[in-house]
Fold:
Amino acid sequence: DVALQSAAAQVLLTRSLTQREAKSRRQLRLVQGIAGVLAVFLLIAAGAGWMAFQNAVDARESLALALATTASTWPDADEAFVLALAAVRLDAYTERKQVLASDFITQYALLNEYGEYGGFVGMVYSPDGATVLSGSYDGTLWLWQVSTGELLQTFEGHEGRVTSVAYSPDGATVLSGSVDRTLRLWDVSTGEILRTFEGHEDRVNDVAYSPDGQTVLSGSHDGTLRLWEVNTGAMLRTFEGHANWVSSVAYSPDGQTVLSGSCSNGDVFGCMVGDLRLWEVTTGEALWTFEGIRRRGR
Structure:
């Protein structure tokens, strides 16, 4: 207070304070400007990082889907299991992991349990109940005597695992579908291939005889049903309309209509919503659609 008694000292102090405040304001604006620029750069970097992360996730899921698709049609069970396991590990953060792992681990366990027979699928009784027919993961069919358990016949010829089997109404022939995209008609007594039905663009999932045994029906991963004439092997009709693969088929008792089951919302890892369709055999027209069947459980 003593030193600032003069007017000149007061002026010097006022100017100094004014300049310091001005400098502080300039520094504050500079810091704010730098902070703003850094914030923009951080946002850009965060956005780019998120996009890169999302692209990596999408790429992993796409690769997992490709591996699983390949595994689902791969003829060798050991190699298919390795492909499925790789898909599981790539897509480990979604619920599809459990579905895929469960399906393939179950199949692989069956394969190991049954050993030389390769794990059985699609087992059916003959019309007289005396024999049982089964398809196998090794691409063969096996015919067994019910009363003794004896293996009567082996049917060989498919180039991929068998997915479904059916007896003709008279028990003289059997039909099989396979991941090799074909249906095959076999003579029960000799085990010989009588006819091969070709035309599906993907694996055959299910087969069925008509009640009179004159035609057969197949459902495929290509999303279609196909009607075939037994005596000639000619494809009579294609039923189209399902949005996804056809998993099962059946004839009505009078043979006038057929029923198909499909996955309307899903992928190779599992089906979330399914539907049924009723078709008229003579025209191929879809008569009814039963929708909204949701998968329970896993």
Observations:
- DSSP finds three helices and 16 strands in the chain.
- Confidence is low (pLDDT under 50) at residues 109-118.
